[in-house]
Amino acid sequence: MSAPLVEVTDLTKHFSVRGAGRTRDVVRAVDGVSLTIAEGEMFGLVGESGSGKTTLGQSILRMHEPSSGSVRFRGRDILPLRRREMTALRPAMQYVFQDPFSALNPRLTIVDAIGEPMRTHGLATRDDERTKVAAVLESCGLDGDVLDRFPHEFSGGQRQRIVIARAMALEPAFVVADEPVSALDVSIQAQIINLFSDLSEQRSTAFLFISHDLGIVEHLCTRVAIMYRGRIVEQGTREQIFDRPLHPYTRELLDAVPVPDPRRRERRGARQQARDWANGEPAELRDVGDGHLVAWEG
């Protein structure tokens, strides 16, 4: 079996918060997370607001400096890297932000917003910049004649395509997509989801797809991790998570979604069990078979 593209081991990110007095509380936003992502894989990360999903994604890319643990990219631990070494690695590891309205500089035309990082990393020159930017825009479903327009001239769905194009222009092997469709109209979401699927297949790009929308994750991702209070409580294939969920919290998340499948309706009633579990101590992930990991007590 080939080595994973991204290997996260016991990653933590703790924030110190000053209380009313001089004492400090510690927020364990990410608390001992381990996972692997293969080349070209679409890996889903699910959890409710405040579960630590975004902090985990940003910590993997060192947008937040982790408190401890390791992140290996192509076998190399990137956490000890110096700024210059990390800058050289940035094109291979990209981030797509949730809000396309704030992710783009309103003063830059589209050709500058996408072309400038390409030139910085040696992927384009002044002579071929427009041609290359037009090509990457077209691969993301936009006409190449929009180069000289500004972000405010586009709809939300078009802006998100531009944000995705900016990330893909650097030819990354790995992309963290943080709730990339949550700010869009439902009618546009399906188009962007299909775009991610196409990019993953055509370019063999690996994605960590962060979302609270279980339906989108089930449709798009081949493996899924469920996150709660900074920890992974269940992880497995799409079929294991959605057809055979074992953790009470996973069941509660799925029970909150209207599902016509009678096999899934049998899980109703897990809500109290999930609340009882949440009040207990964190449990370690255990493999219950075929790579299906569950945080069991005891």
Automatic annotation (TrEMBL):
Superkingdom as given in the UniProt entry: Bacteria
Gene3D superfamilies linked to this entry: P-loop containing nucleotide triphosphate hydrolases
Residue segments, region Disordered: 260-280
Record keywords: ATP-binding, Nucleotide-binding, Transport
Family matches, as Pfam families: ABC_tran, oligo_HPY
GO molecular function, one term: ATP hydrolysis activity
Alphabetical GO biological process terms: peptide transport; transmembrane transport
CDD domains: ABC_NikE_OppD_transporters (cd03257)
Domain spans labelled ABC transporter: 6-254
SMART domains recorded: AAA
Acyltransferase listed as a keyword: no
InterPro entries named in the record: AAA+_ATPase, ABC_transp_ATP-bind, ABC_transporter-like_ATP-bd, ABC_transporter-like_CS, Oligopep_ABC_C, P-loop_NTPase
TM segment ranges: none
Membership in a protein family: Belongs to the ABC transporter superfamily.
Record PANTHER family: ABC TRANSPORTER, ATP-BINDING PROTEIN (PTHR43776:SF8), TRANSPORT ATP-BINDING PROTEIN (PTHR43776)
The protein's name: ATP-binding cassette domain-containing protein
Origin organism lineage: Bacteria, Bacillati, Actinomycetota, Actinomycetes, Micrococcales
